[in-house]
Amino acid sequence: MAEKYIDGYPEYMHKLIQKVHQTRAKRKDFVPKALTPEGREDVLQFHPDYAKGGKRNLMVGLNKGDIVPDEIANLLEAYPLIEKGDIDLSKADYSPEILIIGGGLAGTSAAIWANEMGVKAENILLTNKLRHGDANSIMAEGGTQAADREPDSPAKHFIDTIGGGHFTNKPDVVRALVTDAPIIMDWLCELGAMLDREENGEFTEKWGGGTSVRRMHSCKDYTGLEELRVLKDEFTNRLIPSIEHFPVIELLTDGNKVTGAVLWNLETGEYKIVKSKAVIMATGGFGRLHIRGFPTTNHYGATYDGVVLAYRAGAKLIDADTVQYHPTGAAYPVQIIGFLLTEKLRATGAQPVNKDGEAFVFPLEPRDVEASAIIKECYVRENGVITPTGLRGVWLDTPLIDLKNGEGFIDKSFPGIKRMYERFGIDIRKNPVLIFPTLHYQNGGIEIDPWSHTSLEGLYAAGEVAGGIHGKNRLMGNSTLGTMVFGRRAGIDAAKFVQTQKSWGKLTLDHLDVYVQMLKAANIKPERRAPIILPEYRGKAALARMIDVF
Amino acid sequence: MSNEKSVMERIAEANKPVTAGVDEKDIKHWVTIRIMGKAYRVPSDLTILTAMEFAGYRFVRGVGCRQGFCGACGTVYRKEGEYKLKTGLACQTRVEDGMYLVQIPFSPAQKAIYDIKKERYNVSTILKYYPEVAKCVSCNTCTKACPQDIEVMDYVQAALRGNYEKVAETSFDCIRCGLCAMRCPAEIVQYDIGQLGRRMYGRYGMDKPDHLKIRLKELEEKKFDPELDKLEKATKEELVKFYAAREREKD
Ligand SMILES: Cc1cc2nc3c(=O)[nH]c(=O)nc-3n(C[C@H](O)[C@H](O)[C@H](O)COP(=O)(O)OP(=O)(O)OC[C@H]3O[C@@H](n4cnc5c(N)ncnc54)[C@H](O)[C@@H]3O)c2cc1C
Ligand code: SF4
Ligand code: SF4
Ligand code: FES
CA B173: distance to chain centroid? Predict the structure, then answer.
């Protein structure tokens, strides 16, 4: 019944792999040159951000007129899940001083630092859509940037970051990012995170795309896992309350200031009311919106909720128009389509190669350029490999890594990726893997200042949900860094802020009235509701026959 | 120019099975699996996770990252005609014909509460918080259960000897799925022991690099402020110039 497989690949793909083997020795010392600025410009027309269609002007809210992807406009121009009369706001179920929404690296850092600054554990509340730690943070493979040795400096880190972001980042926010980076590294050491070391005891610091100095710190290829599990352990030791499977579905305001939130029990459907003096939004990214139909590297709950809620309450957004596609997502086998293959693979020697065994692009172009070149190779030059499910991709020649760095290098540096492929019978040390760009990162978001304030009183934002840090394009390793820098700053600042607030504010949904009025005035029909909380992947046949009984 | 849009459309089309769920008409090979005993016919190339979704389950538990990093999707299964109980991650295990399965999305364990800054770097710390580690009967069931191929028993034994480095290195790939603990006859919670071991080793066994200490002191002395003041106020044109003039560190 099944086709014949060799080394995890169907026979016809296995045959094509031979061409990659044949050209490897030649390619080892011959790497294609980086593109000229004109060459970059030319290939970028195939980038999903620049290719025609897929975007429109926002019709409502503070950023009205801004161009954003359709999938984002669909959520920002959607009606709320609840209406005023549905909810009893007369009594709060929880009354912390600080409510933190989302327990990735950003939210967990904020909680620990608020506590460190004197807010009692019982006066903090962290709420999670899924489990505490089911987040994009846990998947970061590559590393975290920090300029903590010579010849590096915060200034070099600043210039790399702002150039990578096409000079659109907020300079004061970038300054906070780079000057706090060594402090974050020190903090991680104090907490016992196992950052990779060289024989001489220095941090292992590697290259990342777009940096002029080696400053990528890692914990094997499980950097985010190590960072988050350490922070979560510390969080738990401090006895800070955390509730799980309880997403926030709306913010509460007194008409202006943010004063609390409505939580929803994902399992029972019951709602709970929280009043708090400050709210820290740390809900992460938006990969599960599958912008332009791309697969994603993101976790199950990455659905843009935080931005939708903050925008409705009146917070300003920034850089909501750009999306980061990672050039190297898995394209085969079907079980792992879209999963991330870290940039570190290319930084240590792996090359993108087409179906004829040719290296067609410099392996370390900025992400947008690299991704565009791969799309072009597959769909315009028609040099891709077509998978049994009809996807196209090019090879990433992973065996080159051991060839360049010595046998055993993959075992030591990429245990996670090696294991992922082994589960499907593929040995990345022996054979290349098939790749295609995948939706990776939300560059922009809720605009923040250097202390994580949003434009709304009482509301902070930190992590991937926040915008301004990376401008129109983020560099590898700056995101995990940003989550901890601005999570920490949000926690510290909120701790001070709540001391100035004698009592809790009024709880209302008045901001929804205003927003719904705007939607109606723009002639938007109540067809869509947001936040969506989770994506829909159920089988069509099963869905077509479902009946709501209870 | 005219084929630009079609490239995006073709990409979206090719990715539909992943972004919007599998369509029945595209399926070539089917298998039958039993989810908590109930039989469902599902496409053969799905994982347990995506096969359950295909069958109509909408997950609110037992799933997180969908990529083998978070440990939310631990699953126990048996294949028809086999007596062996197997374990795996639902998001990383391909369905097989005749599989009986149930997810174990939660393991009722109680993590010890400690202050890492105050603990002593010797065996007494592990024994104080996790005395049950001494009850390990060396049955190796935990190692067999681990979807990350970790030598779990080895790190439990290393913990008993107070060898933090070995605990940390051996348990490093742990994603806290809980499957080892659910199978352990001695009721040991291996992953919490591994966590304590790694933090102890990371804090006390790995020295802080000197270059980091120097950099922190420089920051305290505000050594970089003049340069950063200048950059923060620079115009875009100046920044473009600085960016172009960057010197690349030698490999
Ligand atoms: C596969 C992968 C690899 C990466 N590699 C790197 C890397 O090497 N280096 C780097 O710097 N960056 C990397 N990144 C990016 C980086 O990991 C993330 O951007 C960052 O960790 C986000 O952290 P966060 O705390 O903002 O959000 P998350 O870690 O995503 O946490 C947000 C949390 O909020 C919860 N949440 C969402 N909505 C709600 C709601 N309505 N109510 C309550 N809770 C909610 C989510 O469930 C989640 O738990 C990678 C990302 C991915 C996906
Ligand atoms: S050691 Fe235990 S908790 Fe950790 S990955 Fe293995 S089975 Fe899961
Ligand atoms: S399962 Fe329990 S008793 Fe058996 S080896 Fe592992 S830790 Fe020891
Ligand atoms: S869903 Fe995270 S490991 Fe399977």
Answer: 7
CB contact under 8 A, B249 and A214: yes
Structure tokens at A59: 């019709």
The response to whether residue B168 sits with its C-beta less than 6 Å from ligand 4 reads no
The domain limits of chain B are: 7-103, 116-205, 210-244
- What's domain A89-222+232-322+443-511's superfamily in CATH? FAD/NAD(P)-binding domain (3.50.50.60)
**Cα–Cα distances in Å, from A389 out to A333, A338, A463, B16, B241?**
9, 14, 36, 10, 47
Q: Which helix (H) or strand (E) holds A75?
A: helix A70-76
| A197 interaction partners in chain B (CB closer than 8 Å) | 206, 209
A317/B218 Cα distance (integer angstroms): 35
A234-246 pLDDT, tens digit each: 999 999 999 999 9
- B73 min Cα distance to partner chain A (Å): 11
In this predicted structure, the answer to whether residue B121 has a pLDDT above a threshold of 80 is: yes
pLDDT tens, residue by residue, A354-399: 999 999 999 988 888 999 999 999 999 999 999 988 899 999 999 9
C-alpha separations of B183 from A53, A323, B144 in Å: 53, 43, 10
> Tens digit of pLDDT for each residue in A94-147?
999 999 999 999 999 999 999 999 999 999 999 999 999 999 999 998 899 999
Among candidates A279, A294, A193, which has minimal Cα distance to A234? A193
> At a CB cut-off of 8 Å and minimum separation 6, what does A428 contact?
A398, A399, A410, A414, A417, A418, A421
Q: What is the pLDDT of residue B15?
A: 92
Kindly indicate the confidence band of residue A31, based on its pLDDT and cuts at 50, 70 and 90. confident
| Ranges of each domain in chain A | 5-49+327-439, 89-222+232-322+443-511
Please give the mean pLDDT across all residues of chain A: 95
Q: Where are the beta strands (DSSP E) in A70-111?
A: 79-80, 98-101
Q: How many CB atoms lie within 10 A of CB A525?
A: 9
* Residue nearest (by alpha carbon) to ligand 4 atom 3: B68
Provide the greatest CA pair distance for chain B: 74
Domain B7-103 CATH superfamily = Beta-grasp domain (3.10.20.30)
Give me the residue from B117, B199, B242 closest to A230, CB to CB.
B199
The CATH class given to the B116-205 domain equals: mainly alpha
- For residue A136, the CA-to-ligand 1 centroid distance in Å is 3
Q: What's the topology of domain A5-49+327-439? A: Flavocytochrome C3; Chain A, domain 1 (3.90.700)
Burial B20-40 (b: 16+ CB within 10 A, else e): ebbeeeebeeebebbbeeeeb
Closest ligand (CA of A299) = 1
